[in-house]
Amino acid sequence: MTMTVRTTNATRRALTFTALAAPALVLMAVVNAYPVFYAAVQSVHQGNLIQQGPFVGLENYGTVLTDPDFWNAARFTAIFTVAGVLGSWVVGYALGLVFRRYFVGRAALKVLLLLPWIVPVVVTTMSWNWLVATSSSPLPVLFEAVGLEDVLFLADPTLAAVIVCLFKIWISFPFMFVMMSAALEGIDPTVYEAATLDGAGRWTVLTAITLPLTARSVYISWVLMSMFTINDFPTIFLLTGGGPVDATTTLVVLAYDRVFQAFQPGTGVAIAFVMTAALIAISLALFRSIRRVH
Predict the structure, then answer these.
(1) Average pLDDT in the 112-135 region?
(2) E strands, 167-270, where?
């Protein structure tokens, strides 16, 4: 009898919560569904920004998948994503480990470390442009002083790609720092005390205790940062515009170029949907890892 009452009460609470959340969920579905539906329609038509154009089926997707520019952009997107996710995670995790210990000025330094994430990306991009963009910028001048002349970071394809990846790590590591600090704070200190009594060294503690106990948070942060990085338009557009010679063009920048520069919304939206499919695949793989850890 008691179990039946508890089940009834739980069912009623679930129905109440569902009824309260339903209006907001329906509104969100409608607001998000229409743009997605309209974009899907655009991707199977050969039109422009004003007219929808004739129906062409999957021709736009075929055009995209046979376009060398698409595969070049996909390759750099993969490099940019891996560098941004893993680079920011390594820096954020290392800082999280350092800031677990108390030292004078820790709170103030934590706030300062969040500035690359807090400051608007336009301001940060201007700072990096001032640092590396021209021959009179501080970094090229420094290189020239040590005997390396004519080092133009944003004019050389390889150097521009490196700078873009470093810039992404710079503006992303504070997010990873916050995520990893929270994960590390959740570890029971008695676990470390037991490991110390057993004679475990620092490396053993890190690899056998700290990393496994924070793995779930690590995978979640990777999922989120992968989404942020793959869809990151302003970082590249403001810093290099995708150049030089498309060396730093990602898929999202290429999609923008096709829609708003070449006036080919069909192929541009097709690129966006291919990106979405790839992002879903990456997220599913990481979510499987999260479930295994849990």
Answers:
(1) 86
(2) none
In which region does residue 200 sit, left (phi positive, over 0), alpha (psi from -120 to 50) or beta (all else)?
Answer: beta
291 vs 289: CA distance, rounded Å: 5
3-class DSSP state of 247 = coil
Domain annotation covers residue 158: yes
d(CA 214, CA 275): 29
Give domain status of residue 8, yes or no.
no
Q: Is residue 249 predicted with pLDDT exceeding 90?
A: yes
Structural domains counted in the chain: 1
183 in Cβ contact with 220 (< 8 Å): no
32-60 confidence digits (pLDDT tens): 777 788 888 888 888 887 788 888 888 88
User: Alpha-carbon distance 28 to 33, whole Å?
Assistant: 8
Q: Which residues contact 273 (CB under 8 A, 6 or more apart)?
A: 39, 40, 43, 61
Q: How far apart are CA 62 and CA 68, in angstroms?
A: 12
Q: In this structure, is residue 75 part of a structural domain?
A: yes
Count the alpha carbons within 13 Å of 97 in the hemisphere toward its beta carbon: 14
CATH number for the domain that contains residue 250: 1.10.3720.10
Cα dihedral sign, 54-58-62-67: positive
Which residue range is the domain that position 186 belongs to? 64-293
Average pLDDT over residues 66-86: 93
Cβ neighbour number for residue 76 with a 10 Å cutoff: 24
Do 99 and 110 contact (CB within 8 A), yes or no?
yes
Q: How far apart are CA 127 and CA 217, in angstroms?
A: 32
| Residue 55, beta-bridge partner list | 45
Q: How confident is the model at residue 91 (pLDDT cuts 50, 70, 90)?
A: very high
Would 69 be classed as within a structural domain? yes
